[in-house]
Design a protein that fits this description.
The radius of gyration is 23 Å and the shape is globular. The chain has about 525 residues and is an all-alpha fold. Helix 6 packs parallel to helix 9, helix 8 packs antiparallel against helix 9 and helix 15 runs parallel beside helix 18. The protein is built from 22 helices and no strands.
C-alpha cells in the first residue's frame, strides 16, 4: 500500500478521513434534504417576490447564526472544551459546558428581542430597494420576526455539537441539520397550505414557521446522545468563570473577523436587491448548490480536524499539528477541484433537473446556472478556509483570520463595483469567489510563517496530481455533455439518467487517474475502503 511521505503519517490521514467520512455521510443527508427544501421553494414560489422576501428575512438571523451558531462560538468552545477534556477532570469539563449553555441562552435571547424590535429598520438597511415594490418590505419584516428565534436554537445546537465532537461523536451532530430540513419541509409545507385558508396569511409565512420548527428539532435530536456521554445539565451562571472568559476572548477577534463575512453578505444582498427581481433568489439557489460540496468535505473535514488540532495544540505537539493540517488540505483539494469542474460544466443541466418545476422557469434556470458557475470557481477556497481557520484557533492566534476576512471584504467591494453594471447578479457571485480566494492565499502565507513552514513541496506535488486528474475528468464530462445534449434537455427521467451517468463516469475517471498518479491520500483511502468491504 502506498503511504504518505514520512512527514505525513498514514494514521493521521486515515483517522481524520474516517471521522470526516462519517460526518460526510450525515452532512450529505442534510444537504440532499436541503436541496429538497429548495426544490419545494422553487416549485411553490419560483424566483421573485415571495422567495426574495424569504431569503432576505432568513438572512437576518443567519447573519448572527454564522457568528454564534456555526462560527466563532463553535470553534472557540471546541478549543477550550478540548483543553478541559484533556487536562481537567470530568466534573470541571461538564460544569464549563453547563455554564456556557446558560450564558449564551441568555445572551442570544436578549439579542433576539432587540432584533425583533428593530426588524423593520434592519430590513430597510439590508434591502432598501424592496420598498419600491408594494408590500415586499412588509412581508420581509413579518417573516423576519417569525424566524428570529431560530438563532437561539441553532446556537445552543452548536455548543452541544462541540461537546459531542470533542467526545468523539460526529455522526449524530452532523445529522442534526437533517432534522432542521425535515422540520422545515414537513412543518413548512403543511402550514403553507393551512395558513392561507384559515388565517388569510401568505403561503410563504408557513415556510417561515417551518424554519423555526426545524431549528428546534436540530437542537432536540442531539440531547439523547449528549446524555449518553455522561453530561447532566446543571443551572450554572458564572460569568467570571475562567473557561467562559477564555471562550469569549477567543470569540472576540473571531467575531470581528466573521463580521467581515456578514459585511460581504450585506453588500451582496444590497446589490442583489437593486438588480432585476429574482436576483436574490437566483443567487440563493446557486449558493445552496455550492454549499453541497462545501458541506460534504469542507465542513466535514473541519469538524473532524478541529478536535484533533485542539488536542495536538494542548499537548504542544506542533509537528503532528502541521502534518494534520497538510493532509487535511490535500484532502480538501482532492474533492474541491473536481467538484468545481463538474459544477461549471454541468451547471445548467443540474439546475434544470433540480429546480425547473412548478413556477420555476427556463429563464430562472439560465440565470441561476450562470451564478452557480461563478460561485464554483471559488469553491476550493471556501472549503480550504474551513480547514485553515481551526489551525489558528488551535494555536490561540485568531488575529489573522480577522485580517484575512477584511481583506476579502475589500476585494469583494472593489470587484463588485467594477463588474455589477455589466455582469449584474453574476458579478456578485464572481466577486464573492474572488474575496474567498484572496482570504485563502493570505491565510496560507501567514500559516506558513506561523508554523515555521509546513511540507509545501508535498502539497504542491499533490496539487499538481489533482489538477491533472481533474483536467482529464473535465474532458470526459465535456464530451459526455455534447453526446447526451438531447437527453439533458429532455424529460425529467432522461435528465436524471444523463446527469447521474455523467457524474458516475466522471468520478470513475477521476478516481482511476488519481490511482495511476499515486496520490498518497487517495491511495490510502482506497485501501481503507477495500479493507472495509472485503471484511463484509
Amino acid at each position: 500500500m502506498a503511504k504518505p511521505e514520512s512527514n505525513q503519517p498514514a494514521d493521521t490521514t486515515a483517522g481524520i478521513a474516517r471521522s470526516a467520512g462519517t460526518v460526510s455521510i450525515a452532512v450529505m443527508c442534510s444537504r440532499v434534504l436541503g436541496l429538497v427544501r429548495e426544490q419545494v421553494f422553487a416549485g411553490m414560489f419560483g424566483a421573485g417576490f415571495a422567495y426574495d422576501a424569504f431569503v432576505v428575512a432568513f438572512r437576518i438571523p443567519n447573519l448572527l447564526r454564522d457568528l454564534f451558531g456555526e462560527g466563532a462560538l463553535s470553534a472557540a468552545f471546541v478549543a477550550v472544551f478540548s483543553d478541559y477534556n484533556t487536562n481537567r477532570g470530568e466534573r470541571e469539563t461538564w460544569r464549563l459546558a453547563s455554564n456556557v449553555l446558560v450564558f449564551f441562552a441568555m445572551l442570544i435571547s436578549a439579542l433576539t428581542l432587540i432584533a425583533l424590535f428593530f426588524a423593520e429598520p434592519i430590513v430597510n438597511l439590508l434591502a432598501p430597494d424592496f420598498q419600491y415594490v408594494a408590500g415586499k418590505t412588509e412581508l420581509t419584516v413579518q417573516l423576519t420576526r417569525i424566524m428570529l428565534p431560530f438563532l437561539l436554537f441553532v446556537s445552543l445546537s452548536a455548543v452541544v455539537m462541540g461537546m459531542l465532537n470533542t467526545k468523539g461523536k460526529f455522526f449524530v451532530p452532523a445529522l442534526s441539520s437533517s432534522f432542521f430540513n425535515l422540520g422545515s419541509i414537513v412543518g413548512g409545507v403543511s402550514l403553507a397550505f393551512i395558513l392561507p385558508y384559515f388565517f388569510a396569511q401568505p403561503a410563504i409565512v408557513g415556510m417561515a414557521w417551518g424554519t423555526l420548527i426545524g431549528g428546534m428539532l436540530q437542537l432536540l435530536m442531539q440531547l439523547p446522545t449528549l446524555r449518553n456521554t455522561g453530561f447532566r445539565f446543571r443551572v450554572t451562571f458564572a460569568p467570571k468563570d475562567s473557561g467562559l472568559r477564555r471562550i469569549l476572548l477567543l470569540m472576540l477577534p473571531a467575531t470581528i473577523g466573521l463580521s467581515a463575512t456578514q459585511i460581504n453578505i450585506f453588500i451582496n444582498t444590497n446589490f442583489a436587491a437593486s438588480c432585476a427581481e429574482g436576483s436574490v433568489s437566483w443567487l440563493n439557489y446557486a449558493f445552496r448548490l455550492v454549499q453541497l460540496p462545501i458541506g460534504v468535505f469542507g465542513v466535514a473535514l473541519s469538524i473532524a480536524v478541529m478536535p484533533v488540532l485542539a488536542r495536538q495544540a494542548a499537548q504542544k505537539d506542533m509537528a503532528s499539528l502541521k502534518q494534520t493540517f497538510t493532509s487535511s488540505l490535500v484532502l480538501v483539494f482532492t474533492l474541491a477541484l473536481p467538484a468545481t469542474a463538474g459544477l461549471v460544466l454541468l451547471a445548467e443541466p443540474i439546475i434544470r433537473l433540480i429546480f425547473e418545476h412548478g413556477v420555476f422557469t427556463a429563464a430562472d434556470t439560465m440565470a441561476t446556472a450562470q451564478a452557480l458557475s461563478w460561485y464554483a470557481i471559488g469553491l476550493f477556497a471556501y472549503a480550504a478556509i474551513k480547514v485553515m481557520v481551526p489551525v489558528f484557533y488551535a494555536i490561540g492566534d485568531t488575529r489573522y483570520p480577522v485580517i484575512g476576512s477584511f481583506l476579502g471584504v475589500g476585494a469583494n467591494l472593489i470587484i463588485i463595483n467594477l463588474v455589477i453594471a455589466t455582469l449584474q447578479h453574476k458579478g456578485i457571485a464572481f466577486s464573492t469567489s474572488c474575496a474567498m480566494m484572496c482570504n485563502f492565499f493570505f491565510l496560507g502565507v501567514v500559516l506558513f510563517r506561523k508554523l515555521e513552514g509546513y511540507p509545501l513541496c508535498y502539497l504542491v506535488r499533490g496539487l499538481a496530481k489533482i489538477i491533472l486528474a481533474t483536467l482529464i475528468m473535465a474532458v470526459v464530462v465535456w464530451g459526455m455533455r455534447m453526446l447526451l445534449a438531447s437527453w439533458l434537455a429532455g424529460m425529467v427521467l432522461q435528465q436524471l439518467l444523463a446527469v447521474a451517468g455523467i457524474i458516475a463516469l466522471a468520478a470513475l475517471v477521476y478516481g482511476v487517474a488519481l490511482h495511476v498518479l499515486q496520490l498518497p491520500e487517495f491511495t490510502l483511502l482506497y485501501s481503507k475502503f477495500r479493507q472495509r468491504f472485503s471484511r463484509n
